[in-house]
Amino acid sequence: MPRVRHAPALIALGDTPLTALTGCGPKVAEKLAARGLLTLQDLWLQLPRQYEDRTKIVPIRALQAGVAAQVEGRVEAVERGFRYRPTLRVAIGDDSRATLVLRFFHFRAAQVAQFRPGVRLRCYGTPRPGQNGLEIVHPSYRVIEDDEVGVLGSSLDPVYPAIEGVGPAMLRRLIGLALDRLPSDEELELLPDALLARLGLPSLRDALLTVHRPPADADVPGLLAGTHPAQRRLVIEELLAHHLSLRRQRLAQQAHAAHALVDTALAERLQCALPFALTGAQQRVFDELLDDLRRPRPMLRLVQGDVGSGKTVVAALAATLAVAHGRQAALMAPTELLAEQHLNNLRAWLEPLGVRVAWLAGKVTGRARAQVLDAVARGEAQVVVGTHALMQEGVVFHDLALALVDEQHRFGVHQRLALRDKGAGGGVGPDAVVPHQLVMTATPIPRTLAMAAYADLDVSVIDELPPGRTPVQTVALGAERRPELVERIRRACAEGRQAYWVCTLIEEAEDDGKSTGGLRIEAQAAQTTYEQLSSQLPGLRVGLVHGRLKPAEKQAVMREFKDGNIDLLVATTVIEVGVDVPNASLMIIENAERLGLAQLHQLRGRVGRGSAVSSCVLLYQPPLSQMARERLETMRETNDGFVIAEKDLELRGPGELLGTRQTGIAGFRLADLGRDAELLPQVHEIAERLLERAPQVAERLVERWIGGAMRYAQA
Ligand code: ADP
Ligand code: MG
Question: What keywords appear on the UniProt entry (predicted)?
Fold first, then answer.
């Protein structure tokens, strides 16, 4: 890197507030601000994640499931129905003599009147397998007149992430106005020329103009695939900014002091008292923790371990070191049920050794809460287990030396830091003594992804299950085999076992722009299934849990199931995380083809936790897309979370949305780790050099790409 740019003193233009744009009144500005979009620069970087290719018409016969396309055809039939909610189906046909169904869940009378047989429609959307061939849910469409036939757009149309309260046309217009004010390369560019030349990538200015306004002669397949040099240029800068921000956090962390924890006497006593021996992997990871803990610098470690690999006991062993030094440890879990499970385990393991374990969750209130807070503040509570209630303001630790966080991806980085700030003195200045931190996740992440997601953490892996587990037997069955399963549940429960029946989203609800829609339909599907199964299985105690229940109601049902008072639990995917009911040995997942691999694996992890042979039945609606078929096959072939994660990465094409949820990485604007992982080593190299030689440039990159998102996250 021969020449490093120096940050210009002022970046006035990019910082211009959006109200400076014609047509952006205070109301619109407020909606944009709610998404972290405050300045012109924020709009420049509000990048299209997709394009609609309106430069050509695809014959209906040539449509492929999962591949967005523009089609044109005449309305052949219109049908209104009611399945879970009002539905409008419009069949169109074209010269390829094939039929495509357009399906709408929201529609007005005027719209219905528009769809007269014979009317010519031009639509755009992603076809999916439906009941009778392909269908598109909520396509964008318009009625076209005869003289418009064959008149097509000349370039790709960018599609921007939807923003509540700001229509797509308005958003497009504002982004256009912001782009009109894009400054010169000299003012905008932060990456060294030599680097760009070496990588053969355009300047930031050129790249932004290309992705927002693809020229008519642009490389269309490249843009659609997200591999155009302009996109790669932006992806590199975005990945760089994310990496720099994580590195910066790590450096800041390491500048703090921590109490060295070296006394392993209590850990040895616990290990002797356990009813089992640690697996090799558990022992190795515990050794890695010991090596971190004995330093006067805060540990920052992520323990990855597949579901059931035994992370809790490793956390308990680490906690004993804090206790042995007369200090405190805290263990935080994302749900009350999980936290309670940890509490029971830790009490069973630690109290016989004389360790005082306290419990702090949202439902601990009044006098009980005051007592716990007092015990925590005086140091009488040596290990404190709880939910995010642990991070609330009134909670003051006497001397927190170790913070343990379970199921990390459910918490953001910020929450993790909040628990750290509960450390001795509560200070965050450079001289502050902060707790060691250990985060645990059951979501295995391929190495490359872990590097991107957790650049601020060291990573340990428990890659072995305790002995004696029998792998879950998995089969995939077409939905028509459903009746056989009722019998199978009856048999399993007659043997004293328990079963889960998981209902997943049946219709495409993402497209309606209201995130609660999915939850509602899912809950409704679960309700219907619950009623059906209850009447088909009169001898069984059937329970129901879904996302629309209040947390307390959910907990109550889960507890009944855990206590064995419910035989069959009909549930939505809310049961995905961490719940341990070893007696449950059968799981049926409906519409399994709709779920990503990571989620299927998490769900399946709810069975196979005891010694009985467990099974998982993946029910699917034929026909399966190629991608869905491969996912189900992977699930049948392996129980290994890491193999599944690798396969997931391989399968995930651009546009598949698993990424964010799976890794807990704050949503990228453009980068897609499935597609762009190969860029990471290069990005890391550039990052190290920038941190060394041009820290202010690093600073500006982080502010440019992440500043807005952080404001959003903190809002
Ligand atoms: P996870 O890693 O999914 O959080 P848990 O910590 O809940 O797994 O452990 C799953 C079960 O395995 C628990 O019942 C735990 O007591 C048990 N377990 C943990 N380690 C071992 C071991 N080395 N041998 C036998 N059983 C173990
Ligand atoms: Mg766990």
Answer: ATP-binding, DNA damage, DNA recombination, DNA repair, DNA-binding, Helicase, Hydrolase, Isomerase, Nucleotide-binding
Report pLDDT for 159. Answer: 86
Report CA(454)–ligand 2 centroid distance (Å).
19
Cis status of the peptide bond prior to 623, with omega within 30 of 0: yes
313 lines ligand 1 (CB under 6 A): yes
Residue with tokens 């469409």: 141
Tens of pLDDT, residue by residue over 187-238, are 899 998 999 999 999 999 999 999 999 988 888 889 988 899 999 999 999 9
Pocket lining: 444 vs ligand 1, CB cutoff 6 Å: no
Question: What is the best residue among 313, 465, 607 to mutate for testing ligand 1's pocket, by most ligand atoms within 8 Å of CB?
Answer: 313
Read off the tokens for 425.
């003195």
Query: What digits encode the pLDDT tens for the residues 267-308?
Result: 999 999 999 999 999 999 999 999 999 999 999 898 988 878
The span from the CA of 669 to the CA of 234, in Å, is: 9
- Report the separation in Å between the CA atom of 346 and the middle of ligand 2, taken as the mean of its atom positions: 12
Q: For residue 713, what pLDDT is reported?
A: 44
**Measured distance CA(228)–CA(179) in Å, rounded:** 20
Which of the 8 DSSP states describes residue 300? Answer: E
CA distance 600 to 592: 8
583 CA distance to ligand 1 centroid (A)? Answer: 15
For residue 672 the two structure tokens come to 């897609």
**Ligand 1 proximity of 276 Cβ (cutoff 6 Å):** yes
Please indicate whether residue 312, judged by its CB atom, sits closer than 6 Å to ligand 1. Answer: yes
Q: Which domains does the chain have, with CATH numbers?
A: 1-50+158-217 (1.10.150.20), 56-152 (2.40.50.140), 253-462 (3.40.50.300), 473-509+516-638 (3.40.50.300)
Q: pLDDT for 153-197, tens place per residue?
A: 778 889 888 888 888 888 999 999 999 999 999 889 999 899 999
Q: With 70 as the cut, is the pLDDT of residue 447 above it? A: no
Q: Is 305 in the pocket of ligand 1 (CB under 6 A)?
A: yes
**Residue 620 CB burial class (10 angstroms; 0-12, 13-18, ≥19):** buried
Taking phi over 0 as left and psi of -120 to 50 as alpha, with beta for the rest, 379 belongs to left
Q: What was the pLDDT predicted at 515?
A: 44
Q: What angle do CA 334, 303, 502 make, to 5 degrees?
A: 45
User: pLDDT tens digits for 360-390?
Assistant: 988 888 999 999 999 999 999 999 999 888 8
Ligand 1 proximity of 504 Cβ (cutoff 6 Å): no
Q: What's the full length of the chain, in residues?
A: 715
Mutate to test the pocket of ligand 1, among 279, 312, 460 (most ligand atoms within 8 A of CB): 312
User: pLDDT digit string (tens) for 532-584?
Assistant: 999 999 999 999 998 788 878 888 898 899 999 999 999 987 775 657 788 99
Instruction: Report the distance separating Cα 234 and Cα 668, nearest Å.
Output: 11
Q: Quote the distance between the C-alpha of residue 715 and its chain's center.
A: 20
Strands (E), 604-670: 615-620
C-beta separation of 418 from 713 below 8 A: no
567-to-493, 508, 528, 600, 609 alpha-carbon distances in Å: 6, 31, 18, 22, 16
Check pocket membership of 348 for ligand 1, CB cut-off 6 A: no
- CA 519 and chain centroid, separation: 16
- Alpha-carbon 36 to chain mean position: 19
**Ligand number nearest to the C-alpha of 274:** 1
Q: Looking at ligand 1, which atom is closest to the CA of residue 341?
A: 7
Tell me if 580 CB under 6 Å of ligand 1. Answer: yes
The predicted structure's pLDDT at residue 12? 62
pLDDT digits (tens, 9 = 90+) for 641-672: 878 877 876 765 322 322 333 333 446 788 87
C-beta separation of 40 from 181 below 8 A: yes
